[in-house]
Amino acid sequence: MKSLIVIGKCSHAICAAAVAFAMLGIGTRTGAAASHDRWLDLAEQIFKNRPLSDGTRLIALEMPYRAEDAAVVPLTVRATLPASDPRHLTGLTIVIDQNPSPVAAVFTFGSKANVNAISTRVRVNSYTDVHAVAELSDGKLYVVKTFVKAAGGCSAPAIKDAGEAKKNLGEMRFREFASKPAVSRLHQAQIMIRHPNNSGLQMDQVTHLYIPAFFVADLKVWQGDDLIMAMSGGISISENPSIRFTYVPTGAAPFRAQAIDTEKHVFKGEWPATQSAM
Amino acid sequence: MRVALAVSTVLSIACFFTRAPAHSQDSTAPLDVMQIAPGVFVHFGTIAPMTRKNEGAIANVSFVMGDKYVAIIDTGGSVQEGKKLLAAVRARTSKPIRYVINTHMHPDHVFGNAAFAQIGATFIGHKNLPGAMATHGSYYRKSLRPSMGESLIANVKIISPTELVSDALEIDLGNRMLALRAWPTAHTDNDLTVLDRTSGTLFTGDLLFVRHIPVLDGSLLGWLKDLDELARIPARQAVPGHGPLVTHWPEGLADERRYLNRLAADIRAMIKRGVPIAEAAKEAGGSERDRWQLFDAYNARNATAAFAELEWE
Questions:
Q1: Which one, of A20, A230, A232, lies nearest residue A106 by Cα?
Q2: ipTM for the complex?
Q3: Is A7's pLDDT higher than 90?
Q4: What CATH number has the domain spanning B2-251?
């Protein structure tokens, strides 16, 4: 893989993170045993030997077995804790084992928001295991995995119109979905941001040089002053990042979002709450 | 459409009989081509994914003869197919092949380029084609290796055009003008069409699919816009990128337009209802299932791409 290119071209702000991610990508091996080893290596480096428990009954990771478009592979993680279980999600790490930069995103969730499901779209570069590691409010880590058949998602040039992409850079949209308060007090919303999220593995169509990695590194969403979720993103998040999440409203305060990309552009948005908190 | 259908059936039967011995004996036996107008020859590809067995010969590839020169329009899905296309030209004329035109970047249209590399022809393509080939070439080789086999992939060379079309270009084959036109992003961001002014034959590349489900790798809205413009071209017949000859123009665009409009309408409705992308990909365009070949191979992918495009409307 071309991990070194990521290191060479990234801006100072994210070099540390990119180097850390990229180091995890060095040493591509094949075969079932090797992929198992790879996960053990990744888990050790990402989670610093914290124990990972089987999360099978507590969280679910949903991805299509065969990705239709490797540059836009939908991914959903939801907590499936029984109603009697008092624990909730406090954090979530998505690892795409065989990607050049395996850590796709690290989410942390606000203490009042009670986020219990999150969906986004990722790039998948080759057939790979994908691991979701959730941190629950008991402070422990729980892991589930799935396998995805897809290829070329990191190097596939996703930008259909580079001029258009530049013009709209940073445009944000926020959407609340109609909730069913009778069924659940959970609401659902989506934050979208226009950004090429260049992976560093795509080539410029004119110069034939690799386009430097350029992506949304940090994204936060609040309601009022309460954090709903924060994402620290890598190059595996698809172009025009989109994150859909459940949350418990904390009142009628407006929603705010802030994104910072690897060139230190700061994008902000604010939207009034359209559905009353039940 | 009835006429086109019959033609294609006859054609596929012909292919079946003439191709069988080609594998075992002469590997450069000429490709089966049909003369659809004086000096205009087309090999109609089989509607299927690229495999070792079909040698990647799934797209329509053509050549046009003028008084002085020959122009090739797409070279096929393997060097093997390209060589057979070259043999088909040589079986009919010794005039030099002056131009090799690629209608867009996809491997079933350009993997045969290497067969024409040593004959002094000028390769022509959309201004975005060299970049698209550079970014996609090695990925296509890698991803097609399992289904096509190493021997068909090993000698594929990504040969970029040196003559680029940013808007329009006329080339002269000797008393025969070909009008080339570069299109805004639609099927891909490097679509090019060729109109043979003498016979009124329009080579649409993959801006038009007939019977083979359209494949979206550019912009759905851009494609719909291009179709309106395409319909204005005063052609007498059209050679689509995939599927049989279109004898009624521009009526032959109707099926594809209906599919793309259906997809757009379904996706827009789902976005409005808040359906997530993964669910939308399973359902959008479903009413078109029985009208297209290879529907299950491409529809969900089309829907995924369309969703990502339309949610920013």
A1: A232
A2: 0.79
A3: no
A4: 3.60.15.10
